[in-house]
Design a protein that fits this description.
It contains 13 helices and no strands. The protein has one domain: Up-down Bundle (Growth Hormone, Chain: A).
């Protein structure tokens, strides 16, 4: 599944950048916003639909069994949604900036450009510290007495701020720059995990999930915006996918593995404590780690 699914987001990102050229500073953010809206709609609606279907079928949780007997239905539901998105993708434009192609071997130019290489290092560190706690977040909620509905409710908090921030990412880029957005995203993610790790039972546990939207607008959107500012147009897709491979994939793999080990060895709060403190360290070092963006020749 990962072989086919993982390239979707960075490739969609590069296509969206190409289509958005000349359509104003908010074109990319508005397009990306609809991904958040769709995600939020499914996160809210799926548990409700699952409960209704379980009640209609008389499916109840048995002792020693899964707490949600019909949860496996999320796989065909996701597959159907992706199939529909794939059919719609056939209608996307095929000319203009989308049609620009690189020559064989051009990808080597990316590794000769210091700002891009440093961005890969920052992405590896950022995702390596922040992604793992996100991956096991339902386990963390369960460990503190929550259930599937609690996770769904917390996702509402997470997405509440993400929609407007992503939509206004063009204005944020103009004000803070891609490097500034990265710093804000890393700091917000670090603060969020510090609260989760050190005060999971506090009244701040739910409101602090609003910072997820800042992480998305800063780290998850800021990194591709930095790539867009430093790579040549014909290497847009290669640059975005390489960023995802190093940050989301490699960084996420190491982070998920580390978070799982910390969870098992030191308890459910440990991954959030380590990720939050480590993220703050990377944020403080960012002015030295990452130079202002400059486009490769």
């Amino acid at each position: 599944m990962a072989c086919f699914a993982m390239p979707l987001i960075p490739t969609a990102m590069s296509v969206t950048f190409a289509i958005s050229q000349g359509r104003g500073p908010h074109a990319f953010g508005v397009s990306r916003m609809f991904g958040t809206i769709g995600f939020g709609a499914l996160v809210v609606a799926f548990p409700v639909a699952l409960d209704a279907l379980a009640e209609a079928r008389g499916a109840v949780a048995a002792d020693g069994g899964p707490s949600e007997p019909l949860l496996a239905l999320m796989f065909p539901a996701t597959a159907a949604t992706l199939a529909l998105a794939g059919a719609i993708a056939l209608l996307l434009p095929r000319a203009g900036a989308v049609a620009v192609r690189a020559q064989r071997g051009d990808w080597r130019r990316l590794f000769a450009h210091p700002p891009y290489v440093r961005l890969l290092a920052v992405a590896l560190l950022g995702y390596g510290l922040l992604q793992g706690p996100m991956g096991i977040f339902p386990l963390f909620v369960r460990a503190h007495g929550g259930d599937l509905d609690t996770v769904s409710r917390l996702w509402v908090w997470m997405l509440a701020l993400e929609v407007p921030l992503v939509a206004l990412s063009g204005a944020s880029l103009a004000r803070f720059g891609a490097r500034g957005l990265l710093a804000i995203g890393l700091a917000a993610g670090s603060l969020r995990w510090i609260v989760c790790g050190f005060a999971p039972e506090s009244i701040w546990m739910e409101p602090v999930q609003l910072l997820h939207g800042v992480v998305v607008a800063g780290l998850i959107i800021g990194s591709p915006l930095y790539v867009e500012a430093v790579v040549p147009e014909e290497l847009r897709s290669t640059g975005q996918n390489l960023l995802a491979m190093v940050g989301v994939s490699l960084g996420g793999l190491l982070s998920n593995l580390g978070a799982g080990v910390l969870y098992d060895v030191a308890g459910p709060d440990a991954p959030y404590q380590v990720g939050g403190i480590g993220g703050l360290v990377v944020t403080a070092m960012l002015p030295w780690l990452l130079p202002p963006p400059s486009r490769a020749r």
